Task: structure prediction
Amino acid sequence: MHEEDAFFPHHADHVIAQKHRGPTHEGNLAWACYLCNLLKGSDLASVDIETGRIERLFNPRSDRWGEHFRLEDGRIVPLTAIGRVTEYLLQFNLPRSVQERRWLVEAGRYPASDGLQALGLADPR
Result:
C-alpha cells in the first residue's frame, strides 16, 4: 500500500535481519508497512501448515509477487508454500486488513504497483 494510506509511516526492513548477518544495503532492504515489519521481526522462515516443512519467507527483492500470491476481493491468497508461510506470519488477511484493501482497490490506491515498478520489483503479468 502507499505509505500515505497507512496510519503509521513505513519502515526500512532488513529482508535478512542484521542478527542473521544481513547487510545494510539496498539489496537487503525493503520498504515495509509498520505492522508487517513488526510481525516479521527477524524471522527468515516459518512452518508450512500443509507440508509441515520449514519454508523461507517471501523476499520482495528476488521473488515475484504474482508467483506466490493473488489478490481476491481484498484477500491476499497464497499460491505456494512461500506464500502460505508469509501470509500466515504477516497476518495479511485479518478482517480489518481485507476491508482496508477493498477500500483502497475501490479508490484506485491498491496495489501500489507504481512504486514496485520504479524499483524494478513489479510483476509485469
Notes: The radius of gyration is 14 Å. Residues 3-118 form one domain. Helices lie at 34-40, 65-68, 81-89, 95-106, 113-118. Residues 57 and 82 are 6 Å apart (CA to CA).
